[in-house]
Design a protein that fits this description.
The protein is α/β, with parallel strands linked by helices and about 300 residues long. The strands form three sheets. It has an eight-stranded mixed β-sheet with strand order 4-1-9-10-11-12-13-14, with helices on both faces. A four-stranded mixed β-sheet has the order 3-2-7-8. Strands 5-6 form a two-stranded parallel ribbon. A hairpin with a 2-residue loop joins strand 13 and strand 14. The longest helix has 17 residues. About 45% of the residues are buried.
Length: about 300
Amino acid sequence: MKILDIGSLNIDRVYSVDHFVKEGETISADRLEFFNGGKGLNQSIACAKAGAEVIHAGAVGRDGTFLIQLLKDSGVHADDVQVLDEPSGHAVIQLTPGGQNCIIISHGANFCLKEEYIDRMLEKCDPGDLLLLQNEVNNLAYAMTQAKKRGMKIAFNASPITDAIASCPLQLVDYFLVNETEGSYLSSLQEGSSPEILAALHAKFPQAVIVLTVGSDGVLYQEGDTVLSHPAYRVHAVDTTGAGDTFTGFFLAGVCKGLDAQECLRVASLAAARAVTIKGAANSIPDWNEMEDFAKQFAEKKGKG
């Protein structure tokens, strides 16, 4: 079982600030740093580092060819990533001393994927393979429809939330990986607790596995009548930018490895906790051995505590 990730490739501009800028306010950044990013790139790297076979489909400008090499260096098949005349996608990220962030995305080449290209990439897959999508590229509905016709499974990380998601055939999705804000939007539940959001998502999409991350409270999971949870690992967060992407990649790699759901939640939670202790997105993603080493160190500290 392999993963085809039709996803974004960005150059992240990270501004370290005392607090998030308010309306009408001008603030100074303490520091500007450049990182590799894009939810697509991060999730492909996370899947590959966790041991899955991953093909990445996407596009960069001529300013972003180094992102293709990064994918390859991380074990991702990236020979078919397009290089276009459009500028690469980029993100403007405000990062506070507490590790919290807010992000503005400029799509660039990420929104230049044509149907013919998507068809060509889907031809590399077999029935039962997994299509991974986020909401940072165009033609999502087309990709979902064509993948399902080929007998593929579909995993959708509905981030960032935009009205464009409403045009997607979400009834085709097999795995939803969302946070509470995204879950509320998809379920049309304006207010509710995490378990209520999970129940609403399951009621609306009973055919799908629901993976709902709930911040410091960890993650909730539902598949049919089976409901599971896993707590978050308490660590000192330096930068939360790539945590969700790391979680997604390790969870799906666990699915590809045939791990049971509870174990998928465990390894994904561990990998995400390890990622937030390092600044940056793609560069903070651990491999499988680093995740297991972190688990041992965490257990030892907890035992001494």
